[in-house]
């Protein structure tokens, strides 16, 4: 499905390899680029998350949040109590932290959310070491970086604002189908895992406090294209046992 979408966007040569982003990236770096270099072909590697320009682009999300919060609350400098985003390699997270710094939102709690099996950041923080996961075992393959960027690890370890959080694939499925039914938005599991915080008191449990109606909570809906209506329908069946009551 994704190959067809990429080709429709104008790509002339699309290769598919591996069961996750990490496997595809390893193959690209260690085989395709290496072989091309040996033949004298100069290749340009475009990183999906590990570059300052990418972080800077993502940081503009915080600028938009600042404007929208002021419009919604009537406060000139409205600051969110909580901001949650999914973490794969860490590009979005790095941008969020850059944006928070620019706006001096030092009191905002940042929830860095991963699925079990893609939780390279949470494991790195737990072990206090920039580790590499042995394998990607989650269905949220878009989050499948076995090792987050160095910048991501440094930010998570040095900032008291950051809290890592790991949810199951089934919880990600629940967040995905709930968003589809309630907001008419189709997103990947990589996004649905963060949306899941809105249900079943998960946000309350993560923060270890009550969430009041006056709390300003921002959930970054990062989207994703590798999803269909049939997939979401199956997610609903597979996560039927998951508590999805609004918390």
TrEMBL record:
It catalyses: L-serine = pyruvate + NH4(+). Residues 4-223 form the Tryptophan synthase beta chain-like PALP domain. GO terms for molecular function: L-serine ammonia-lyase activity; threonine deaminase activity. Its EC number is 4.3.1.17. SUPFAM superfamilies: Tryptophan synthase beta subunit-like PLP-dependent enzymes. It comes from the Eukaryota. Its cofactor is pyridoxal 5'-phosphate. Keywords: Lyase, Pyridoxal phosphate. GO terms for biological process: isoleucine biosynthetic process; L-serine catabolic process; L-threonine catabolic process. The keyword Repeat does not apply. It is an enzyme of class 4 (lyase). PANTHER family: CATABOLIC L-SERINE_THREONINE DEHYDRATASE (PTHR48078:SF2), THREONINE DEHYDRATASE, MITOCHONDRIAL-RELATED (PTHR48078). Belongs to the serine/threonine dehydratase family. This is L-serine ammonia-lyase.
């Amino acid at each position: 499905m994704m190959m067809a979408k990429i080709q429709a966007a104008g790509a002339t040569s699309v290769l598919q390899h591996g069961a996750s982003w990490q496997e595809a990236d390893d193959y690209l770096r260690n085989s395709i680029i290496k072989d091309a270099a040996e033949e004298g072909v100069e290749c340009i590697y475009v990183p999906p998350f590990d570059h300052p320009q990418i972080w800077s682009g993502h940081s503009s999300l915080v600028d938009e949040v600042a404007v929208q919060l002021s419009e919604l609350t009537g406060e000139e400098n409205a600051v969110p109590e909580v901001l949650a985003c999914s973490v794969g390699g860490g590009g979005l997270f790095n941008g969020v932290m850059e944006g928070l710094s620019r706006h001096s939102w030092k009191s905002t709690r940042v929830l860095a959310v991963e699925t079990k099996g893609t939780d390279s950041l949470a494991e790195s923080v737990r072990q206090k070491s920039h580790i590499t996961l042995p394998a990607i075992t989650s269905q949220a393959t878009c989050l499948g970086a076995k090792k987050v960027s160095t910048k991501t690890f440094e930010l998570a370890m040095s900032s008291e604002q950051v809290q890592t959080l790991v949810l199951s694939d089934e919880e990600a499925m629940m967040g995905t189908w709930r968003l589809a039914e309630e907001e008419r938005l189709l997103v990947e599991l990589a996004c649905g895992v963060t949306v899941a915080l809105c249900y079943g008191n998960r946000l309350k449990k993560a923060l270890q406090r009550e969430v009041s109606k006056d709390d300003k909570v921002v959930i970054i809906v990062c989207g994703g294209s590798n999803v269909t209506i049939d997939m979401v329908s199956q997610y609903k069946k597979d996560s039927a046992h998951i508590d999805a009551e609004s918390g």
